[in-house]
Design a protein that fits this description.
CATH class of the largest domain: Alpha Beta
Number of helices: 4
Largest sheet: 4 strands, mixed
Structural class: alpha/beta
CATH architecture of the largest domain: 2-Layer Sandwich
Distance between the termini: 32 Å
Radius of gyration: 18 Å
Strand order of the largest sheet: 5-6-4-7
Shape: elongated
CATH topology of the largest domain: GMP Synthetase, Chain A, domain 3
Strand content: 15-25%
Number of domains: 2
Number of strands: 7
Length: 179
Amino acid sequence: MPIPDKIAAAKKIDEFLRNVVTNGGLHLRYRITVDPPLADERDWERPEIMVELSGPDSPLVLERGGELLRSLELLALEMLHLPGNEHEKIRFDCMNQRAMRLEELRVAADVAAERVLKTGVPYEFAPMSSRERRIVHLALRDKSELRTESQGEGGRRCLVVYPKDYKAAAKAVVARRIP
């Protein structure tokens, strides 16, 4: 379901970011785009509102794996009262970090698929966010000889790639990779 009033939502995000940047003493600029064009056909995240941050404090936003970037995005989602299944409707990025991470996940999915097909051994990714797991699931959805599952709880939840007919009882060996 689309965001009911995207312009009003973008204005709320603008007000929120203006306060954060001003009161936080941050040297950042931002651009908010409603209905941004897709980067390519395979872009499985189809945000209705895109927020791009830049400026001298960009490295601060990207420290610790983009923790501040994700926090700003989460606060904006909460402020707009978007349910969890609609979080992909808003995307925050800084210095194209998010787009690079998506491409990294796509490549990692291809490498994992190749390894599982070659060895027959399941491949377990390091724990990642639900958005990142979704990207890997979608990247591998057309590979009928494989299946993917999310496993674990909370911050330790990860994605595992299995050969299609892999038996659950035989889960003794799992290849691991930290993206």
